[in-house]
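Kindly review both lines to help learners:
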Amino acid sequence: MLVFSSDDLLKSEKKILKYVSNKSLIRHLNDSSEVTLLLNFHLVEMVILSLPVLVKNDFIFKRVLLVIEKDSGSTFLFYRSEILGNKSFENFISNARRVVNAKFSLLKVGIRVYFDCVDFLDAKCEEIEQSVVEERYVARNIVSLMRFDTILQQARPNVEGIGIMVDELVRINDGLGENRDVVIGDDLLSLRLDVVQVSGLLNGLGELIDNVSNSIDSINNFRLNRVMRTLTVVTVCLAIPTLVAGIFGMNIPLPFAEEIMALPGIIGVSILVVVLVIMLFKGRRYF
């Protein structure tokens, strides 16, 4: 849990970071109702971001809370340490640079985190798509795709929320009239384009996952059909000698009963018919 003063952010080239011991605020990372209470009892401005964190080739969403006290101007940033595993957020915390607007900076780094998430998922989906083309790891891949789809379902509303907050900052900046910050305005427009790009990439990934999932379903159906056709051929082939054996196994007077070569002959004819049936199925490319 970190706290840094707005004066330090505005005037210093190096951010001064200090650990604070207010443990109650850390609960805002997990309980949105307490954020509402904080909003009701204190004159503060808040930004809550849910950022994807890569843990063992899987993404876990962690919440970041930015609190800006309007009366004192102090700015507080609360987050779980796991988020530091993300390069974009780690650079945001550790880099010595001037931060003009804490909210804008957090939104900007948040969208960079989602870019990193999209790049990772895109690479994984392409890898799965290639393995599916080669018909490898089909069962394992469907589990991975379901997990990736769950990540996308969580990511989309979060990115939309960032877009809404960026639009709000644009309206506030435009409402200043002649005092409008041109640089911040241009940066906000650029960030808005980034949000649109991330949204498009997330939708594209969703379509890619759907297409690969459909391909996997098609491969599984094709394999199932091939197995069923093979079983059908085997069943038909076995049915012929079974029918012959059933007929000649009846306890009634039968032809060839007194013939010495009757049994080898009947077996030979049965085998010949089975071979002909197999050749017929093979000629029709049933297997």
